[in-house]
Design a protein that fits this description.
CATH superfamily of the largest domain: HAD superfamily/HAD-like
Helix content: 40-55%
Radius of gyration: 18 Å
Strand content: 5-15%
Largest sheet: 6 strands, mixed
Shape: globular
Strand order of the largest sheet: 1-6-5-2-3-4
Structural class: alpha/beta
Number of domains: 2
CATH architecture of the largest domain: 3-Layer(aba) Sandwich
CATH topology of the largest domain: Rossmann fold
Order of helices and strands: EEHHHHHHEHEHHEHEH
Length: 240
């Protein structure tokens, strides 16, 4: 879950980006991200929060660009995003740190308390992705949720997890985060599978690339229908 609006919303592709070429005969499981895959675009949700809270977008972009670049391009050990996702940092401390970098368009300071809840208040479920996981499981494939979390104040509808997934991995609970190699191995292990037996779905291309480097078939999610078609092709599922 990376609420970065600095790059804009992805453009849907006619064919999903799949890395490396598929090996259908060996695939036995699907591991998938949550935010931006089973929900609407995180960028769209964050954009709604910025508008509702009268937050100056330039201050948000500046903060997120610096933090996310370090979290994904550097080692990021002391990075606020890295610490939050791995459960090494206090969400309230993160809220205070981010709020201190932001300004409202009326010139006043952004309230820190409850900032993360407000940030993700605009996330909405994507029924087509729920249906896809039900279809995948019904076809006999094992499924696992693998999500980088920014706190868990009711963000995840955990009541639906048993219907959709055989296992779930929330980063702050296991003290690991994507794109670390060990969290992908952990998720595959919970399914009793090797990485090369798994498809991995994520809306963040860096995470897809990391999974593919371990031997997983990575699907870069940009659109529910495109992802569903890619998964159906990879697993040999019947079409509509």
């Amino acid at each position: 879950m990376v609420p970065d609006i600095t790059r804009g919303s992805p453009t849907s592709l006619t064919i999903a980006a799949v890395y490396p070429p598929p090996r259908r005969a060996t695939l036995r499981g699907v591991i998938t991200d949550w935010g931006g895959v089973f929900t609407n675009s995180i960028a769209d949700a964050v954009s709604g929060w910025l508008e509702a809270d009268l937050i100056d977008r330039n201050t948000y972009r500046a903060a997120m660009k610096a933090w996310l670049t370090q979290a994904y391009d550097g080692d990021g050990d002391d990075n606020p995003v890295h610490r939050l996702e791995r459960g090494d940092g206090d969400p309230a401390e993160f809220e205070r740190a981010l709020a201190a970098l932001l300004l409202r368009t009326d010139g006043t300071q952004v309230a820190a308390e409850g900032l993360l809840s407000r940030m993700f208040a605009g996330t909405l479920p994507v029924p087509a992705m729920y249906d896809l996981m039900r279809t995948v499981r019904a076809a006999g494939y094992r499924t696992c949720l693998l999500s980088n979390s920014w706190g868990d104040d009711g963000y995840y509808p955990r009541e639906v997890f048993p219907e959709l997934f055989d296992a779930w991995v929330i980063s702050h609970e296991v003290r690991m985060r994507k794109p670390e190699e060990r969290i992908f191995r952990h998720a595959a292990g919970l399914l009793g599978l090797r990485p090369e037996q798994c498809v991995f779905i994520d809306d963040i291309e860096a995470n897809v690339a990391a999974a593919a480097a371990l031997g997983m078939v990575g699907v870069h999610h940009t659109d529910p229908a495109v992802t569903a078609a890619a998964i159906a092709d990879l697993l040999g599922l019947p079409g509509d």
